[in-house]
């Protein structure tokens, strides 16, 4: 299992159809790496994420994800097939690749993200 990562560079969009119309989140420059480094558990930094997405990388055939927007007033969690994530680098120091999920037909998110991340911390609680 790869540890959670803080992206050095990422670009793309996440969108979710809210009751008031489309809500679109573009990855921002908000840096929560300090919180990630001081947290003892993997779920700890979730409270710092106001707009974005976390993905749980596990040996299972599914990717579990959690999307938040509008300072966590909008939330959606789901799962995607493992093929939705293509890693081009997967090492103890770095992970990079592309994530493509489209659960919009069932009321979920649509994500198309390219990333290149230095791993900030490895958690042992999962």
Describe the structure.
By secondary structure, the protein is mainly beta. The chain has one domain (6-118). It contains one helix and eight strands. The protein has one helix spanning 33-38; strands at 6-18, 21-26, 52-56, 62-69, 74-81, 85-90, 94-102, 109-118.
Concise account of the structure shown:
The protein is mainly beta. 5% of the residues lie in helices and 52% in strands.
Key features of this structure:
126 residues, mainly beta, five-stranded antiparallel β-sheet, 52% strand, disordered N terminus
By DSSP, the count of extended strands is 8
Class per helix and strand makeup: mainly beta
Quote the beta fraction. Answer: over 45%
Radius of gyration: 14 Å
The global form is: globular
Which percent range fits the helix content?
under 10%
* Major sheet attributes: 5 strands, antiparallel
The helix/strand series, from N terminus to C terminus, equals: EEHEEEEEE
Low-confidence stretches: 1-6, 25-29
How many separate structural domains? 1
Indicate the mean pLDDT: 75
Tally the helices: 1
How far is the first residue's CA from the last residue's CA? 9 Å
Order of strands in the sheet with the most strands?
2-1-8-7-6
SSE arrangement:
Blueprint (H helix, E strand, L loop, with lengths): L5 E13 L2 E6 L6 H6 L13 E5 L5 E8 L4 E8 L3 E6 L3 E9 L6 E10 L8
Antiparallel strand pairs: 1-2, 1-8, 3-4, 4-5, 6-7, 7-8
């Amino acid at each position: 299992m790869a540890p959670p990562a803080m992206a050095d560079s990422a670009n793309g969009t996440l969108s979710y159809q809210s009751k008031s119309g489309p809500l679109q989140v573009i990855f921002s420059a908000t840096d929560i790496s300090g919180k990630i480094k001081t947290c003892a558990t993997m779920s700890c930094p979730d409270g710092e994420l106001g707009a974005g997405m976390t993905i749980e990388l596990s040996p299972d055939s599914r990717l579990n994800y959690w999307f938040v927007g509008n300072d966590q007033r909008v939330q959606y969690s789901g799962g995607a097939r493992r093929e939705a994530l293509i890693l081009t680098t997967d090492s103890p120091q770095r992970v990079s690749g592309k994530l493509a999920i489209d659960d919009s037909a069932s009321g979920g998110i649509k994500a198309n993200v390219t990333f290149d991340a230095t791993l900030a911390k490895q958690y042992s609680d999962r």
